[in-house]
Amino acid sequence: MPFSRSFMRNSFMPIFLLKSLLSLMLLFLTFVQMFTMFEIFEKTGKKYNSEKLRKIHKLNAKLYFLLYIFIAYLYLDFILKARSESSPRASFHGIFAIVIVVLLGFKISFVMSGINMI
Q1: What is the pLDDT of residue 63?
Q2: What is the SS3 assignment for 3?
Q3: pLDDT tens-digit readout, 20-56
Q4: CB 19 within 8 A of CB 74
Q5: Which residues are CB-neighbours of 46 under 8 A, at least 6 positions away?
Q6: DSSP string across 67-81
Q7: What is the pLDDT of residue 91?
Q8: N or C: which end of the chain has fewer CB within 10 A?
Q9: How many angstroms separate the Cα of 112 from the Cα of each of 35, 62, 65, 105, 118?
Q10: Residue 84 exposed, middle or buried by CB count within 10 Å (0-12, 13-18, 19+)
């Protein structure tokens, strides 16, 4: 396991602070995704090059997915090491995290089916 207990004990910040900072990065990546998407599909007066925005959007999506998987790994690793029953708050966090992945899958499938129709 790459992130063993010794890594977390020897790290320079607590695990909750690390996960919070990584989650803020996810939030920033979400805003970049929304901006590029709205600029690409804007109907009046395009300010930016659409091809460049598409590349940024795709790269940002890959970064988002990798960061999401990393944060999920940290959470699952923490849950396994805690060996206790989760609180209702933690259960809701888990459910909402799964919902995000499902919604992302729906979004990708709708976009891909729209591309096939064109």
Answers
A1: 92
A2: coil
A3: 888 899 899 989 988 888 888 777 777 888 889 889 9
A4: yes
A5: 39
A6: HHHHHHHHHHHHHHH
A7: 78
A8: C
A9: 20, 16, 17, 10, 10
A10: exposed
Q: Is 98 helix (H, G, I), strand (E, B) or coil?
A: helix
DSSP 3-state assignment of 11?
A: coil
| pLDDT band at 3; cut points 50, 70, 90 | low
Both tokens assigned to 28: 């920033």
* Pairwise CA distance, residues 54 & 25, whole Å: 20
What is the model's pTM? 0.68
Tokens of 51: 């091809």
Q: In whole angstroms, give the CA distance from residue 63 to residue 69.
A: 10
